[in-house]
Amino acid sequence: MRILVTGGAGFIGSHFCEFLLEEGHEVICLDNMVSGTDSNMEDFFYHEDFTFHEHDVTEYIHVHGYLDWVLHLASLASPVFYRDYPIKTLKVGALGTHKTLGLAKAKDAKYLFASTSEVYGDPEVHPQPEEYRGNVNPVGPRSCYDESKRYGEAVTMSYHRKHGIDTRIPRIFNTFGTRMRDDDGRVIPTFIVQALNGDDLTVHGDGSQTRSFCYIDDMVEGLWKLMNSEVNEPVNLGNPEEVTILELAEKIIDLTGSGSGITHEPLPEEDPERRKPDISKAKETLEWKPEIELEDGLEKTIRFFAK
Ligand code: NAD
Ligand code: UDP
């Protein structure tokens, strides 16, 4: 197949591009490098079936020839980055999704919009099934991201209903692994870099808030299975193993053998208290569930950052 991937210089996008190339497909990557890096693509940049174009997908996209799939993964994705670039975040979820859907329509291609557990906001239902409509503050500090993704889902479903586009909408829960940036700001790379440098780990609040972390290899397999399924509506993809942020910090100190301590910093405003996916739908419709334990994924990620 001939596949367009937006955000292919980022963490999840680069792993998915590499996987698609290994499966024998041609991959065209569009990325404006706002948070992506050259090094994420170095393992496959010169692959004969890979092409890279530096392009902001909120602007008109022109691609020669046919496309089988359009995968829209581009977005600012770390709370630190989307706090610094709120308007770019809104634009890539709104205009970028509109442009890539227009391209999929013109090429009669299957389409994926990378959504997020953040569409549930600070959830009042636990764990979160796809039917839950969420608890998002439309004017809060995280709204630029949450609402851009909620709009992205709405415009994707509208193109499906109005134009018959064959859509896929993964709601991705916290995913981690190799190729995350050391200054990404998300909790796992932050804690690992702090532990390896012997600095204190900065736990926000008392660390009782929870997240459920999925290793990147499991996520890539979930995305692939979703694309090969018939499911047009949103599907949760994530690892239901829930940990508190304090437990995560202690685990990382233990696994790195670091002498670091833990300091507590103020909890960011509207930081979700609990998050855990209900993955019944993915299990039933995709026959997918994560296989990699948190500790095993952390060990691989620690080795990557240590290098
Ligand atoms: P990332 O920041 O590593 O990668 C995103 C990529 O998109 C970067 O390379 C960036 O340069 C690019 N990009 C951003 N705006 C762009 C624009 N206007 N034009 C072209 N390229 C642009 O983030 P990630 O963790 O790999 O996330 C990938 C996708 O998955 C995002 O859509 C994100 O919202 C979603 N997601 C990720 C997680 C997670 O835990 N990693 C969780 C939920 C959803
Ligand atoms: N967090 C933390 N210390 C840090 C960075 C993050 O305690 O140095 C917390 C953050 O406040 C949140 C959790 O870790 O409660 C996960 O944050 P992340 O930015 O990785 O993703 P989120 O799930 O909030 O989008």
From TrEMBL:
Q: Which Gene3D superfamilies match?
A: NAD(P)-binding Rossmann-like Domain
Needed cofactors: NAD(+)
Coarse class of the protein's main subcellular location? Golgi
Task: Report biased composition (Basic and acidic residues) as residue ranges.
Answer: 272-282
Does this entry carry the keyword Cytoplasm?
A: no
Please report the record's description of how this protein sits within the membrane.
Answer: Single-pass type II membrane protein
Domain NAD(P)-binding residue range list:
4-301
* Biochemical pathway: Nucleotide-sugar biosynthesis; UDP-alpha-D-xylose biosynthesis; UDP-alpha-D-xylose from UDP-alpha-D-glucuronate: step 1/1
The region called Disordered is annotated at 257-282
Q: Which family does the record assign?
A: Belongs to the NAD(P)-dependent epimerase/dehydratase family. UDP-glucuronic acid decarboxylase subfamily.
| Protein name stated in the entry | UDP-glucuronate decarboxylase
**Taxonomically, what lineage is the organism?**
Archaea, Methanobacteriati, Methanobacteriota, candidate division MSBL1
